[in-house]
Amino acid sequence: MGGVPTLSRYVSAFRNCGLRPSDRLAVALSGGPDSMALASMTLRWQGVVKSEQAPLALIVDHKMRPESTEEAQAVAEQAAQLGMRTSVLTIDWSPDALAQGDRMVAAREARYAALLRACGEQGCGHLLLGHHAGDQAETFLLRLLHASGVAGLACMPAVAQKRTECGVVQVVRPLLSFHKAELEQYCRASGLRFVLDPTNSHLAYHRNRIRHALHEYPRSPALSGGDTVGEAGPSFTHGRGDSQAAVQWGAPMASLPTTLSEEVQEGDSKASRSSSSASRSSSSASRSSSNSDSSHGSGHSQSIVSDLLMLQRRCQAYAAQEQKDTQRLLQRAVLRSSCSQLQQQSMQDEDSAQHPQALQQAQRERPVTRFKRERGLDHLARQRVWAQSRPWFIDWHVRLDQVAHVLQPLPFALLAAGHFGRERAPHQNQVALSALSRILQAVSGSKYPPPLAHALQLRQMLRPGHMGGTFTGGGCLVRRLPRCKGRFVLCIPVDQLRTAEQLLRQLPPINAFEEARQRAKAAAQAEAAAGFQGGEADAQGQL
């Protein structure tokens, strides 16, 4: 993967992201080699596709360092020299905003918010970010260390939608297949000046430690025979003074596979290999890779990054299929909801939009469909007459509509518990957990998914196909509706319980029998109250 990226390679990368010549593009420009290479590639791509709209360079001044304003102006001047429109975004921090929590997380969230807001104000529908293969590998390791699920290990998508006040913005990462060394070589070959943020080298931050490990770990004497690799890496020699370091680096590597791709290909049989055999394979692989490092210095680092990206792509493919299954489950299980993330969409409309042939077939079968609809209306009329003759009957379609109507001011979700009790395939349990996590996150209004333990507990309560108790977790309270034997479940925020109970008291009677019983009860209470008042009046008259 060494060498300067060719024109055809990054043009195809832009096209694979779905970019068109008519799109209004904005580039997040920090002045580093990644973003400067992205800006230059964007201009060249627009020249190939003959786009007339110059891209907008968005430079964020974080105000976290004294020299940040000067650097932002210098980056803006360089972008203007390249032929880009420029806009410098300044972040105004509150006095104690950086004193709480992680400075890196706060800066990243503020940067994304400013970039998306600027895209919406400037009318740019696509925001281009300079994330590369190394950033993807770092994100994969970071989430792996935090025990993320498959959806989290899918990491950063090449194209994602973000909603803003001014509309939807497509966040595009066209450089995910490029390594950082390639982008630096591209900048040097193109004569682009770039700056390096000193905070990226501070090992106090978790991501920086992972980046340092990916960059330096493959260059140890255990793998490269003690030779120096690259310009920025530490110099390990064959001298006796470094023998202790060689032992410290080589000991854990001897028990690890040479590359992660070997571990994936060989599967469980890899676990039975002896440590001596693993050490011999590690040394032989290091000798062969050291020869390739003579041609391009960061071969070891790129090899590990490529292996991590292979695992990430597998997780991404599995997560995409799991997301489709989760969406199908949500469309069946979520009966009513006031949360926009859980608004039910017709699966038939979605399939017709994706398959025009199905829509044409449906139009040809319209007379048959009309006949079935009329027959269905007759069936509903007969069912309505049948229900009126049986006062104890509960029409749950009507009842769910009534519950949804009174709870409309609150975030809620009405669920069919039976859909979470079906397990026809081994992966259905994970799909159910993912669906429950999305429901709890949407109803609670949290920015992050609930803990996995809460989703597992709720899943266990719904496994029989009905719910027998009350669940509290993930910021939500989940309980069954009265008189439904646990088939229908209500999910509301736990801090809105009193308000929900007050609203549910406004519900009409559940059926005609209950209505008659409530009338009789009210009449009896009124008669008892009248008799009590009459008795008090007689007692006062006697006195």
TrEMBL record:
Protein EC: 6.3.4.19
Catalytic activity: cytidine(34) in tRNA(Ile2) + L-lysine + ATP = lysidine(34) in tRNA(Ile2) + AMP + diphosphate + H(+)
Biased composition (Low complexity): 272-301
One Pfam family cited in the UniProt record for this chain: ATP_bind_3
InterPro entries attached to this UniProt entry: Rossmann-like_a/b/a_fold, TilS/TtcA_N, tRNA_Ile_lys_synt, tRNA_Ile_lys_synt_N
Keywords annotated in UniProt: ATP-binding, Ligase, Nucleotide-binding, tRNA processing
Domain tRNA(Ile)-lysidine/2-thiocytidine synthase N-terminal: 25-212
Alphabetical list of PANTHER family matching this protein: TRNA(ILE)-LYSIDINE SYNTHASE-RELATED (PTHR43033), TRNA(ILE)-LYSIDINE SYNTHETASE (PTHR43033:SF5)
Protein name: tRNA(Ile)-lysidine synthetase
Native source organism of the sequence: Chlorella vulgaris (Green alga)
